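Researcher: I'm comparing several assemblies side by side, and this is the next one on my list. It has 774 residues spread over two chains. Same procedure as the others: predict the full complex and return the structure.
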Amino acid sequence: MEPDGTLRIAGPDGPGVLRARAVLLALGTRETPRSARLVGGSRPWGVFTTGALQQLVHGAHQRPCRRAVIVGSELVALSNLLTFRHAGIAPVAIVEDRRRTLVAPPLAWAAGVAFGTPVLTDARPVAIHGTHRVEALEIDHRGRRRILPCDGVIFTGRFVPDAAPLAGSPITMDAGTGGPVVDQYGRTAIPTIFAAGNVLRPVEPSWTAWTEGRAVGRAIAEQLGGRLPAPSRRTTLSAAPPLRFVCPQQWSEPSPLRAALPMQVRSEEDVSGRLRFTAHGEELWGRRARLRTGRRIPVGVRLGDIASGTEVLVEVVRPN
Amino acid sequence: MHDVAVIGGGVVGCALLRRLALHGMDAVLLERGRDILSGASKANSALLHTGFDAPPDSLELACMRAGYREYLDIRESLGLPLVQTGAVMVAWNEAQQARLPSLLAKAHANGVADVRPLDPGEIARLQPGLAPGALAGLHIPGEHVIDPWSAPLAYVRQAMAHGATVMRDCEVLDGVLEGGAWRLVTPLGDVQARIVINAAGLYGDLVEQFARTPPFEIRPRKGQFVVLDKSAHATVRTIVLPVPDERTKGIIVCPTAFGNVIVGPTAEEQTARDHAATDTATLEALVARGREILPALAGHAVTAIYAGLRPATERSEYRIEALPDQRWISVAGIRSTGLTAALGIARHVLDLFRRHFGPVADAAVPISTPVPNLCESLPRRWMQPDAGEIVCHCERVTRSEIEAALSGPLPAGDLGGLRRRTRVMLGRCQGFHCAGRVARLAAGRLPEFAEHRP
C-alpha cells in the first residue's frame, strides 16, 4: 500500500495498481507456524498448521500423516479432531502449554471422551524428531521430558492477523492485536481505508467476521454518501497489561449510524477484577469481570461524545 | 563406463560436475539424497566471500578467490543474482577493536585491497540503526549476498547440457577398483568410472574408506539460524559482521537474496551427520542477539528456523588431494566457505586431474542455461503480464514456476527441492495458505504427496 492509499496488487495478469474512494481490508488471519514458535528439532515432513492440514486433506485428498499430535487447545484444535476422523488420522494427544485448555473445559473433556484423545496441559513442545518424516514430538510435561511417537505434528491456533501487505504503509498498527488501529466504523489511519473481520484481531468465528463485514460495509456506504462525519476527532483507547488489547482502539465523533464494531477486550492471562475504562482518572464505565486467556469480553461502554483527543485507559483492577 | 564419477551433489559436487563436463568428460554425479543439496549445502549463510579473513596463502583462500571471480564471470549467463551489500565488521569493545589492524593487514595480504577501516560515524552511515557503542570497524565492500540454491542448480544444469548425468537417491554403498576402473555399488545398480572424486561432504570420511584408510575425520559443526520476516529487510542494508575470534566467525546479521534477514550461525560440534537440530533456547538467543545488534529488528516476526552442518574435519584446512594409484581425488573438509569456493575448487581439481591423470580437453563454449530468478530485487515471474496463477502469496510463487520446477532435465526430487527451486511454502505462513494447492500440483511427483486419504 502506498502512502496515499493506492494499492499495488499482483494477479494473473501481473502487477497492477488500484485506486478507490473506499477500500475494505478483509485480509483475514492465519495460524502461527512451528518456526515462529521457535520449536526446535529437525525439519521433517509432517509438521503443519491446521490450515495446511485441512487443505491437504480436503483440498488435495491427501493423508499426510497417520498418527498426529495437536499442539494448542483453542477451538480450532477440535476442528482438527474432525479433520483427523475424516482423513483416518489417529490423534495421539492434544498438548497445551498453559495450565488449562483454552476452550471451555467441558469441550476439552468431550474431546477426550468422544475421540479418546489425551489432553495434556502444562505441556510444551520442545523438539520435533525425524529425518524424512516426523518420528516423534518431544514435550516438556510438567517439568519432565516425554517422547510422543507420531508422524505428524499440527500447530493449531495462535492466530495472527494476516496484515503483511500493510507493513510500511501509513496505516497505524496495534502491537496488541497485530492488526490495524481502527475506529468504531472500521476506519484506519487513512480514513478511506476500512478494515473488518479477523484482520482486526485474533480471532472470531466466521459469522462474526461476516457480521462485521456487513456493518463496516454500511459505514462505507454512509461515508461515500457524505453522511459519516470525517474522523477528525478521535479518542484513543489503550489497554494495560495483562490486557492484550481493546478493539476498536479509537472512537470518532459519533454519527446516527451505530458503531460497526462492538467493543471488546481480551486478556493475555486469566484474571479477575474490575474491568474499567477511565479518562483523566475518572471511571467512564466498569464492571466486575472474570477474564480468561484469549477470550473475548464484550464491553458495554458508551463513549458518546467524549471530548476528542482524550486518552482512555482500559485496565483490570484486581481486588486487594 | 564414465570418465569420472563425482560422489556428492552438494555445491562442490555440482561445480565439479560442471567443470568436468565443460572439458568434454563423461561425468556422472551420484547423490544419496532425493535431490541435490540434501546435505551441508542446503543450509548456509548464502554469502559470496572475498576471502579477506581466510588463512593467508592457503588452498582455501586460492579457491575462494578463484570461485569468487568465476561466479561474477558466469552469473549473468546462468541467471544468478548478486546482491551487492558489502559487509561491515563492527568492534563493540576494545579487545575487538585491537584485533582490527591485523585483520585489515590480513585482508590486504589476501589480495582484498579495498578493505578499509571505519570510524563510528562511517559505520552508522553504512548501517543506520545499529546499537550504540560501536567503537570502530572495517568495510569489506566485496562481500555479497547470493542465492545459495539456484547457484549449484545452475552449475549442475549446465553440466547436464554438456552431457553430464545426475543420479539421485543413489547412495554409494561400496566401491571397488578393479582392472583400472572403479565399480561403485549403488541401489540403482553398479556405476563404472575411470576416476572417482569424493565430494561427499558430511560423509566424506566414510566414502574415502573405499580408496584408503581416511586421513581425516568429518566432525560436523552445526550452525543454527533464524530467518526474520520480509518486513525486517529494509532495516538491514549490509552484512553486519562481528570481529571473529579463534573459534568462530560469530553471529552475523544480513539480508538474504529472497528479501528476508538472517541472524546466525552458531558453531556447535556434534557427531551426527544426518540431522541438524535447532533448539528453542539457542533460537531465542539468536533473536535476542539480532535485536541487540540492530534494535529495529525487534517486533519483526520469525519466518523460518534452520540449522546447517559444516563438513569440517579435525583440521581447519581444506583436504583436497589426488591419489594417482587409487584413481581417486578427495575433496574434503570444505567448511562454510564452500559456496564461494566451489567453482575455484573445481578448477583446482581439474589441475590435479591434468597433472595426475593425463591431458584434458579445452573447455567448450558454455551453453547458457539460466535458472529462474528468485531474487527479490530482480524481476520475478509474478511481475510479468502473463504471470498466471499465484500459488504462494507470501513468496509470490506462480503456478508456472512450480510446474517448471517439477519438470525439465532435473525436476525437484522432494518437497525440499521444490522449495529451494521456487521458494514455495518458505514464507511467513509456512504453507498455511498454499499447502493444498502445492499438493495438487505435485501429487504423484514428490514423495511427500504420495498418500491419498481413504
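Model: For your comparison table: The longest helix of chain A spans residues 206-224.
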